[in-house]
Amino acid sequence: MDAGLLAAMTTGPLRAFLDSDLCGQAIVVVQICMSVASWAVMSERILHLRELNWRASRFLGDFDRQSDPIALYCRGERLSDAPLENVYRATCDRFASLIPEAQRARLRVDPGAPIRLDAVRMELVESSCAHATDEETMKLGRGMTALAVFTSSAPLLGLFGTVWGVMLAFQTMAASGVADIAALAPGISSALLTTVVGLVVAIPSTIFYNVLQSKVEAQTVRLEGFAEDLMGKLSLHYRAAGTEG
């Protein structure tokens, strides 16, 4: 047998795991599964939010270059499944549904045509915009709850495993009638393993949770700002004269 493998089996975390009882081993296995799941969530969220940021910058650049807020929609521009574009699509769909078909056809040809909506219809458009914004905000936070659960529960599982292991270690020592460190050390080592694994899970999860939360909040602020800007431009271009929001 390889000397390194033999050493790992006689000392270190593997030895502590093998010396643990079924409960302690089960806790370590659960913690390892939580670690794998947390890294999967963190990796997916980081890549997803990075892509959303790129898409948002590109879309805002296109949107800001238009003289009319629904020009992209009327031209049938391909919109991706990203938060800003989903809000834009839902708002424009609602706007288009509230004007007569003849005027809708005119908009496709001439965005910015003199079409006006009264205050009631404009409020319906604003309501659709707000609803879409809320839905997209909820999507941005996907996975964060699971990450928070892993962050908080892994150390608690570790603490439970440690208390359980220490209790068994003292019971074993009492049953053997031998009160020395050599008899107690294996049990204590196994007991502390769950705390170590719990911290290994919780520390990176906590760091990445805070980083991801700040990115989600930044995307949320950007999304809400775009929704307000979109409604402001729609009101400026299409609200009927003499009506109030």
From TrEMBL:
Residues 118-224 form the MotA/TolQ/ExbB proton channel domain. It is found in: Cell membrane; Membrane. GO terms for cellular component: plasma membrane. It comes from the Bacteria. Keywords: Cell membrane, Membrane, Protein transport, Transmembrane, Transmembrane helix, Transport. One of its GO terms (biological process) is protein import. The keyword Ribosomal protein does not apply. The chain crosses the membrane at residues 26-47, 147-170, 190-212. Its main location: membrane. It is a multi-pass membrane protein. Belongs to the exbB/tolQ family. This is MotA/TolQ/ExbB proton channel family protein. The lineage of its organism: Bacteria, Pseudomonadati, Lentisphaerota, Lentisphaeria, Lentisphaerales.
